[in-house]
Design goal:
The protein is an alpha/beta fold. It folds into 2 domains: 216 residues, TIM Barrel (Alpha-Beta Barrel), CATH 3.20.20; 43 residues, no CATH class. Helices cover 47% and strands 15% of the residues. The strands form 2 sheets. The protein has an 8-stranded parallel β-sheet. It has a two-stranded antiparallel ribbon with strand order 9-10. Helix 9 packs across helix 10 and helix 11 crosses helix 12. The radius of gyration is 20 Å and the shape is globular. The mean pLDDT is 95.
Length: 272
């Protein structure tokens, strides 16, 4: 799994024929999904397929989305993840308490809690405070359903952006990695995806969850700085290196320590 986490691609646990393809797709992380993508009667088969792939591909590493703590499948999912060294992290859906997170951390894996209910938003601070949480994310479809929000409306954007702010704030307060934005459901709309990914990047998110390989490159491009921003940042850093000063004027604007740090981060995002 990449050090960066711009894209995390879901693949159903019942489709083991797709696991290797997903791992070779260019996504920064792959999430093998035991939850929503698997019908109730197929849960046991999904665990068996995951276990078999893990044993036959010992060099592969991936995340697993288990079933939530209120389901009958939670303990068995967790036990399987505990046994598999390939599982480098667990995505915990419908997280609603620190206790649920502690149970997953006890499996010896780092956790990405998914906030998908009003209760999860309400107790987000205690969820984020658990040692072993890697970063936060949320599931917009389940959350909108729980809150009674109408999808694809301006009102939905208002509500979801408030949740995004809470994820950013709690991540910063608890020293977590930047959060992952939720999925963009229409994988046939690369333009809309690019707009959404760019907005997430500008907000301070590290990347996005994705549901189709064709979304990966669009997301990665959106999380790169624009040519204009990169040019500005490189000139700022060049001036700092030349002069050694941390306060100067460039392009008619004041540059000081916070601006220099922003420039440094832009250059780092570009891989420079």
């Amino acid at each position: 799994m990449s050090e960066q986490l711009r894209s995390a691609l879901f693949v159903p646990a019942t489709r083991s024929d797709r696991f290797a393809k997903a791992l070779a797709s260019g996504a920064d992380a792959v999430i093998i999904d035991l939850e929503d993508a698997v019908e109730h009667e197929a849960k046991e088969r999904a665990r068996a397929e995951l276990s078999n792939f893990s044993m036959t591909h010992p060099a592969a590493s991936f995340l697993v989305r288990i079933n939530d703590g209120a389901t009958a499948w939670f303990e068995e999912d967790l036990a399987l993840c505990r046994e598999l060294p390939n599982v480098v992290g667990i995505v915990l859906p419908k997280t609603e308490s620190a206790e649920q997170v502690y149970a997953v951390v006890g499996a010896g894996k780092r956790v990405i809690p998914l906030i998908e209910t009003a209760r999860g938003v309400q107790v987000l601070d205690e969820i984020a405070s658990v040692q072993g949480v890697r970063r936060l994310s949320f599931g917009l479809l389940d959350l909108m359903l729980d809150l009674g929000v109408t999808p694809d409306t301006e009102s939905a954007a208002i509500v979801l952006n408030q949740v995004r702010f809470q994820l950013l704030l709690r991540s910063r307060m608890h020293g977590l990695g930047a959060p992952l934005d939720s999925i963009y459901p229409d994988f046939s709309d690369p333009v809309g995806l690019g707009v959404a990914a760019r907005q997430a990047c500008d907000m301070g998110f590290c990347g996005m969850l994705c549901i189709h390989p064709r979304q990966i490159e669009v997301i990665h491009q959106a999380f790169l700085p624009s040519d204009q921003d990169l040019d500005w940042a490189q000139r700022v850093m060049a001036q700092v290196e030349r002069s050694g000063t941390v306060a100067f004027k460039q392009d008619g604007r004041m540059v000081d320590l916070p601006v220099i740090e922003r420039a440094r981060r832009i250059v780092a995002r570009a891989g420079g």
